[in-house]
Amino acid sequence: MKFENYTIKDIAKALNLSTSTISRALRDSYEISPETKKKVLEYAEKINYRANPIARSLKERRSHSIGIIVSEIANNFFSQVINGVESIAYDKNFQIIISQTHESSERERLNVEYLTSRGIDGLLIALSSETEDISYLHQLKERGFPIVFFDRIPKQFNTYKVVVNNQQGAYDATQHLIKLGNKRIAHLTSSKSLSITRDRLEGYKKALMANHIDFDPNLVKYSQYGGLHLDEIEKAIEELIQIGFDAIFISGDKLTTGYLHVVKKRNFEAASNIAIAGFTNSNVVELFSSKVTAIRQPAFEMGKIATELLIKLIEAKYPITEFETRVLPTELINNHEIKKP
C-alpha cells in the first residue's frame, strides 16, 4: 500500500475552511484569528500533519537543505564537525545531507553533482586529498551557488572559509617534542596537495629552525590517502626506522590512530617507545599509548561557524562580495613530562 501523507486540502475539507486559511493558520499569520489557529493546529496535531517539503521548496524556490562533503564520517574530527553543523542547521530548519569522498576527487565531484541536482541550498566542503582541479566549484560559485570551505581549503576561491591555526598547532607539537630532549623528529603527514599539509609542515619547520635543528626532508613522510590505507603508514614507518628517529609529529587524526595501530600490530620495537605528538580529536589514542600528546581542534565549533556562514550566504538578500577566513585556535593536551635540563 502506498503511503499517503495528509495535505492542507484534507485539513480544509475536514474543518470546512479554505486551503488559504489553513495555510495562513499553519504559518501563524496575523490575518487569522487565534480561535481559528487553535482549531487548525489542534486538528493538524491530531492527524500528525507534516508539511510537504517538496511543495514548500517549489513555492519558495528553496529546499531548506544543505550538503556537507567530508573524506570519511568515521574520522573523529569530521564526525565532530558534522555534530556542529547539525546543531545550527536543525535550529534554523535546515536538513543536512552528508557525503563521503574517501579521499577520491572523482567521488567528490560526483557527490557535488548529485547534491546540487537534488536542489540543496548550499554546500559545506572539505577537499579530498586527490583534489587539484576545482574549476567545477568555481562554475557553481559564478552561478550564485553558496559554498563554504572548512579545514581543507583551496588557495584561491572567493568565499567564506573556516580553519584552525594549523601552523601554530604544528609548531606547538614539534616544540613540545624538542623540549622532551628529542632532536630527530619525524613528520608523518597527508597529501602534498592539501592546505593542512602545507601549513602543518611549515609549523614543523619553524619549530626546528627556532631550536637550531636542521630540517631533514627524509624525515618527512607523505600519506596520499591520509591514513585510510594502513599499508601507506607501514611503509612510512619502515623507512623511518631505517633512517632513525627519536620522536614523531603526526599531522592528522586518522594518521595518528593508524600509526599507533600499525606499531602495535607489527610490533615495531624501534617505534614503540618514542614520543608522539599528533593532530587528533580521538579519545581512543590513550588506550593505545600514554605517550601521545594530542593537538585538539575545535571541530564542533568549526562546524557551527561554517554552517552559520553558509546560511548567511543562502539567506542574503544581496550578493556578498567580501569574505573572511575564520581561524580557530588549537589546544595541546600534554601527556608527557618535560625533561629538565
TrEMBL record:
Xref: InterPro entries: Cro/C1-type_HTH, HTH_LacI, Lambda_DNA-bd_dom_sf, Peripla_BP_I, SBP_2_dom
A GO term for molecular function: transcription cis-regulatory region binding
SMART domains: HTH_LACI (SM00354)
Keyword Transcription regulation applies: yes
Keywords associated with the record: DNA-binding, Transcription, Transcription regulation
Residue span, HTH cro/C1-type domain: 5-50
HTH lacI-type domain: residues covered: 6-60
Keyword hit for Lipid metabolism: no
Domain of life of the native organism: Bacteria
Record's protein name: LacI family transcriptional regulator
